[in-house]
Design a protein that fits this description.
binds 3-hydroxy-3-methylglutaryl-coenzyme A; binds magnesium ion; nine-stranded parallel β-sheet; 11 helices; single chain; about 280 residues; two-stranded antiparallel ribbon; alpha/beta
Length: about 280
């Protein structure tokens, strides 16, 4: 029997903000993470230590990470693409990282400027160094169902990268995008809602036994190297579905709704959470 508890990984401060044109001041990012820390969420992806030339919005990574109030019991993972990123993350005492690869060669080149094979070598160095520092690593795989440059991606390509990441020591693999996946407890689903299918895929994968979902408050975001990709599944919509279906998350939906409204206002954009909009309209 699968568990009734669902782990929600809030990726708004990273995935949600990385593609926003308006560069938010660090103080707002810090406030966002501090607010999210009051909602019951146990994992909040805080920022990424990537090249500022590639992702300008994340260039204040060290400032943000140093300044947030780190609550006991909450993990604040960060994205790290290489040893340079890991070094910067270590300097501000990051406790958990995520490496990110792809099941598609073209996407790998566009996103991290190397082939899948080269990326696995890089991840190996990063994970070994992380382990020496007692840091846990999550693995992301993008394009698990399809790639914006190559179209369909074979399940075997996804399995190959997932296998390599697990062997390198990743404790959890987050599958980026669509389709219902396997029922292993190390797998998380990371849906962007580009075609409005994120909740449907979430529902399907719940039935397959997936119990970890990535989501972004107010549905913020989109990947800069996947043109047309909209934000992640909104955390508010995920929580609503889970509570309607009788799952437990320990996260306070009403608080999330307030934070979603606030951060959308700060960014000057529409709140992408249906549940958020419906609740605020009442
Ligand atoms: P590169 O240009 O091949 O790297 O980029 P390089 O080693 O040749 O270095 C070039 C310059 O970048 C150098 O500076 C380095 O110092 C600097 P210069 O000498 O020219 O002044 N540099 C760095 N600076 C800061 N931090 C670093 C770093 N590394 C190099 N860590 C690299 C390769 C991987 C760095 C680059 O391609 C990159 O940063 N990519 C990140 C792209 C990204 O963040 N994408 C979004 C996240 S993934 C995502 O959203 C998908 C996901 O959500 C799942 C899903 O939805 O599918 C996870
Ligand atoms: Mg993403």
């Amino acid at each position: 029997k699968f568990s009734n508890y669902v782990k929600v990984v809030e990726v708004g401060p990273r995935d949600g903000l990385q593609n926003e044109k308006k560069i938010l001041p660090s103080s707002i990012k810090i406030e966002l993470i501090n607010k999210l820390s009051q909602t019951g969420l146990k994992t909040i992806e805080a920022t990424s230590f990537v090249s500022p030339k590639w992702i300008p919005q994340m260039q204040d990574n060290a400032t943000v990470f140093k300044s947030i109030d780190k609550k006991t019991g909450i993990n604040y993972p960060v994205l790290v693409p290489n040893l340079k990123g890991l070094q910067s993350a270590l300097e501000v005492s990051v406790k958990e990282i995520a490496i990110f690869g792809a099941a598609s060669e073209s996407f790998s080149h566009r996103n991290i400027n190397c082939s899948i094979e080269e990326s696995i070598k890089r991840f190996k160095e990063v994970i070994l160094e992380a382990q020496k520092n007692n840091i846990k690593t999550r693995g992301y795989i993008s394009c698990i169902a399809g790639c914006p440059y190559e179209g369909n991606i074979k399940a075997s390509a996804v399995a190959k990268v997932a296998d390599a990441m697990l062997q390198l020591g990743c404790y959890e693999i987050s599958l980026g995008d669509t389709i219902g996946v396997g029922n292993f407890e190390e797998f998380a689903l990371h849906c962007h809602d580009t075609y409005g299918q994120a909740l449907a895929n979430t529902y399907a994968s719940l039935e397959y036994g997936v119990r970890i979902f990535d989501a972004s408050v107010a549905g913020l975001g989109g990947c800069p190297y996947a043109a047309g990709a909209s934000g992640n599944l909104a955390t508010e919509d995920l929580l609503y579905l889970l509570s309607e279906q009788g799952f437990n998350t320990d996260v306070n939906l009403n608080e999330l709704i307030k934070i979603g409204e606030w951060i959308s206002g700060e960014l000057g954009r529409t709140n992408m959470s249906k549940v958020g909009l419906a609740t605020i309209a009442k």
